Amino acid sequence: MLDRDTMLEHVGRIVAAVAVPVTADLEAGYGDTANDVGRTVARAVELGAAGGNIEDSGPGGVIRIDEAVDRLAAARAAGPRGTFVLNARTDTYFVGTSGDVFDETVERAVRYVEAGADCVFVPGVVEEETIRRLAAAIPGPLNVVAGLASVIDAPTLFSLGVDRVSLGGSLARAALSTLERAGRELLDSGTLGFLDGAIGYADLQRRFDS
Q1: Across residues 90-95, what is the average pLDDT?
Q2: C-alpha distances out from residue 37 to 28, 29, 56, 149, 167, Å
Q3: What is the pLDDT of residue 210?
Q4: For 2-42, how does the pLDDT look when each residue is reduced to its tens digit (9 = 90+)?
Q5: CB–CB of 51/76 below 8 Å?
Q6: Residue extent(s) of CATH 3.20.20.60 domains in the chain
Q7: What is the pTM of this model?
Q8: With b meaning 16 or more CB within 10 Å and e meaning fewer, what string describes 167-203?
Q9: For a disulfide at 163, which of 27, 39, 45, 141, Cβ 3.0-4.6 Å?
Q10: Mean pLDDT of 91-102
């Protein structure tokens, strides 16, 4: 994992390079305390980030709910509502819990929204009925991942009540898989079938120049 300064440096470069809102994966806030989380979010805001994720897990698993709420409250104070979208990520389905995972997820989601979260991010949930129940029970917009542990497409997720769909590393994994297939084809046969449908060199150059 990148350290905070390196990550924020890259966020700033991306914000400066594009003309669309940029949200940042701020991990668990890059610090042990709520004040640390607040400072991380404040720096992201200064760099022009339009929002960010704050997750509730660490090396030991999901952190205590009261501690997670304090950290989100600090994030909210540092990133004003209306100018910074605070996406509270709970890893209950991702790393597991000691109790009923659905009930704990909803309890955390309710507390997170009360602490100021604009939406709740629940990665790792894969069953359509569970997603539907979460969308109905959580008092705010629900964000889930498509392409990580689930193959449910975006239109279906929206029909289940999901408001925001993330791809995580799916695009990077797809690109690396294409590269691997190309290398295998070159090694096995020396053919160039992997270039079928590839963007032209001149077009690629124009896109980088624009």
Answers
A1: 93
A2: 8, 4, 12, 28, 24
A3: 61
A4: 899 999 999 999 999 999 999 999 999 999 999 999 999 99
A5: no
A6: 4-168
A7: 0.89
A8: eeeeeeeeeeeeeeeeeeeeeeeeeeeeeeeeeeeee
A9: 141
A10: 90
Handedness of CA 138, 141, 147, 152 (dihedral sign): positive
pLDDT in tens, 32-45: 999 999 999 999 99
The pLDDT score that the predictor gives to residue 96 is 84
The residues that bridge with 71 in the sheet, in sequence order, are none
Written as one string, the DSSP assignment of the chain is: ---HHHHHHHHHHHHHH-SS--EEE-TT-SSSSHHHHHHHHHHHHHTT--EEEEESEETTEEPPHHHHHHHHHHHHHHS-TTTSEEEEE--HHHH--SS-HHHHHHHHHHHHHHTT-SEEE-TT---HHHHHHHHHHSSS-EEEESSSS----HHHHHHTT--EEE-TTHHHHHHHHHHHHHHHHHHHT---GGGTTPPPHHHHHHHHH-
